[in-house]
Amino acid sequence: MQVTLKILRFDPAKDKKPRWETYQVEAEPTDRVLDLLHKVKWYQDGSLAFRRSCGHGICGSDAMLINGKNRLACKTLVKDLGSVITVEPIRGLPVEKDLIVDMEPFFAAYRAVKPYLINDEPPPQRERLQSPEERARFDQGTKCILCASCTTSCPVFWVNGTYIGPAAIVQAHRFIFDSRDRGKRERFKALGSGSGVWRCRTAYNCTEACPREIPVTQLIEEVKRAILFDSF
Amino acid sequence: MDPLKEPVPVMPTAHYAMGGIPTTLWGQVIKDEKNTVVPGLYAAGEAACVSLHGANRLGTNSLGDLVVFGRRAGIHAARFARDADYHELTEEHLGESRERIERIKNSTGKEKVAALRAELQQSMMDNASVFRTGELLQKQVEILKELMDRYKRISIDDKGDAYNTELVEALELGYLLEVSEALVHSALNRTESRGAHAREDYPERDDENWLKHTLAYKVEDGKVAFRYKPVVLGRFEPKARTY
Amino acid sequence: MAIKSKRYQEARLEASTNLELYWWVFMRVSGVVLVFLLIGHMWMNAVLVDLNSIDYDYVAKRLSQTTWKVYDWLILALALLHGGNGLRYVLDDWVRDPAKRFWTKVVIYSLLAFLFFLGSLSLFNYDYGVN
């Protein structure tokens, strides 16, 4: 089938503002949007820039705004979109070139919640044991691939930009609810601040955008509750 | 899709590359059969070859490359960096890299990166896959020569400096060609079957002549020289993998 | 734009209060309390008595009692705080320009303070001619 691919492009050397470019691409209904982008880049216009790595939804590089929704280009099929497809960079982060955005603010928020195991207790003789139930408690957060689909679909993040964002909260959740971790107070400092979880207005955009089907909003609410019960 | 109505699309992918840049147990790159270290240069992961897999990497074992030897390389590199002095970057050092980039950017040749890469992939799949013969490998040697010649005439659309992913792909194609060359020449040279190297014209393992690592050195396009390094066997004897 | 703190040490400095938590709890508690206060208010003025019989004397008589003064003042205070904080959320979420956001807040907060002052004054500092 013939697909009309509209891409919002931006070349920092030439453009003042992003501009729409339209490409005609021959595609199979089972092609991914990533395949279309490759067809454009490899055979029509080599200057098109976008991030991608593994190509099957694990590395989290190719989140983009496809037909108005944040999705991974490698997990979105042409047959689910129709014959006119628009592709834009994810919103709320500065565009570097075409579909590539500056991810630094996103990762600054990620670092702020200390996304690693914190436990200063002397290590036991063998492993720190955990029951299947304790492991299941934070299972959903472990599915996160840091693609930024959630954070860049959040209206609070778009407007103000000082919000820590859903992805960082999901990462914090993964450790706060880990029975082996002792660092929740340190994380609460970043999460409880003016730019932390209390900015969340439960718009549910993040939950809808997540390509890994993490119930993001629910996890954010659980973190709010954890902070609440920790303080009172 | 409904597998009752239409076939499920399936395609093979290469999911691991055995061999690679030879390193010590600390990730330091070595350059010859005497384990001479290249100071300050480290390799880890799939790019490196600490040689912990034998001739056939088994499932999940590349985690060792990453978790164990990645960590060791990092520790050693940090130690090295603490005592090492900065080298002066002279035109002489920069020149070659700069020239590589400028040549591709300024080229007006007709060859395209994607088309050339597709040809490389297809021919390597056909002629230098797991099961190979001297005849096919010899054919691939010639194909690689031709592709390397055509690679000199590639040009790109993107002349910019910011996120020039097209330039990166063009540079990577050059490296792919060189790695392919090392692979094909070494496979042609090794007249036995071992692990994931299955020569249909030499189906038996030949420990007498070939129980050794191949070190491939590029002489010029299409010409590769070999040296050999003994295998450190330790506790395990090489054995056929049978089920 | 973007998160201000680039490193977690900076985030730590930025994040040393529980203020937002208290506001969050306040919004929930005051919301529930307001519902009951307002139901009581409406019950009193629209169900127990005929709306049309409410005149100056009725109101003045009621507001001469301390209990009712406190009751109405609670409604005033909670409603202004709850609504004002809600408005702050909205401004934080929707006014992009920091300078514009600051001045909008100055105006709104002044207005709220004025309303609170005026309301408190009329509740506590006036005897409504009833004695």
Automatic annotation (TrEMBL), chain A:
<dbReference type="GO" id="GO:0022904">
    <property type="term" value="P:respiratory electron transport chain"/>
</dbReference>
<keyword id="KW-0001">2Fe-2S</keyword>
<dbReference type="InterPro" id="IPR012675">
    <property type="entry name" value="Beta-grasp_dom_sf"/>
</dbReference>
<keyword id="KW-0408">Iron</keyword>
<dbReference type="GO" id="GO:0006099">
    <property type="term" value="P:tricarboxylic acid cycle"/>
</dbReference>
<dbReference type="InterPro" id="IPR025192">
    <property type="entry name" value="Succ_DH/fum_Rdtase_N"/>
</dbReference>
<dbReference type="GO" id="GO:0009055">
    <property type="term" value="F:electron transfer activity"/>
</dbReference>
<feature type="domain" description="2Fe-2S ferredoxin-type">
    <location>
        <begin position="1"/>
        <end position="91"/>
    </location>
</feature>
<dbReference type="InterPro" id="IPR001041">
    <property type="entry name" value="2Fe-2S_ferredoxin-type"/>
</dbReference>
<keyword id="KW-0479">Metal-binding</keyword>
<dbReference type="InterPro" id="IPR017896">
    <property type="entry name" value="4Fe4S_Fe-S-bd"/>
</dbReference>
<dbReference type="Pfam" id="PF13085">
    <property type="entry name" value="Fer2_3"/>
</dbReference>
<feature type="domain" description="4Fe-4S ferredoxin-type">
    <location>
        <begin position="134"/>
        <end position="164"/>
    </location>
</feature>
<dbReference type="GO" id="GO:0051539">
    <property type="term" value="F:4 iron, 4 sulfur cluster binding"/>
</dbReference>
<comment type="similarity">
    <text>Belongs to the succinate dehydrogenase/fumarate reductase iron-sulfur protein family.</text>
</comment>
<keyword id="KW-0411">Iron-sulfur</keyword>
<protein>
    <recommendedName>
        <fullName>Succinate dehydrogenase iron-sulfur subunit</fullName>
        <ecNumber>1.3.5.1</ecNumber>
    </recommendedName>
</protein>
<dbReference type="InterPro" id="IPR017900">
    <property type="entry name" value="4Fe4S_Fe_S_CS"/>
</dbReference>
<dbReference type="GO" id="GO:0051538">
    <property type="term" value="F:3 iron, 4 sulfur cluster binding"/>
</dbReference>
<keyword id="KW-0816">Tricarboxylic acid cycle</keyword>
<keyword id="KW-0560">Oxidoreductase</keyword>
<dbReference type="InterPro" id="IPR009051">
    <property type="entry name" value="Helical_ferredxn"/>
</dbReference>
UniProtKB/TrEMBL annotation, chain C:
<keyword id="KW-0479">Metal-binding</keyword>
<keyword id="KW-0349">Heme</keyword>
<feature type="transmembrane region" description="Helical">
    <location>
        <begin position="70"/>
        <end position="90"/>
    </location>
</feature>
<feature type="transmembrane region" description="Helical">
    <location>
        <begin position="21"/>
        <end position="43"/>
    </location>
</feature>
<dbReference type="GO" id="GO:0046872">
    <property type="term" value="F:metal ion binding"/>
</dbReference>
<dbReference type="GO" id="GO:0016020">
    <property type="term" value="C:membrane"/>
</dbReference>
<dbReference type="InterPro" id="IPR034804">
    <property type="entry name" value="SQR/QFR_C/D"/>
</dbReference>
<keyword id="KW-0408">Iron</keyword>
<keyword id="KW-1133">Transmembrane helix</keyword>
<dbReference type="Pfam" id="PF01127">
    <property type="entry name" value="Sdh_cyt"/>
</dbReference>
<keyword id="KW-0472">Membrane</keyword>
<keyword id="KW-0812">Transmembrane</keyword>
<feature type="transmembrane region" description="Helical">
    <location>
        <begin position="102"/>
        <end position="124"/>
    </location>
</feature>
<dbReference type="InterPro" id="IPR000701">
    <property type="entry name" value="SuccDH_FuR_B_TM-su"/>
</dbReference>
<protein>
    <submittedName>
        <fullName>Succinate dehydrogenase</fullName>
    </submittedName>
</protein>
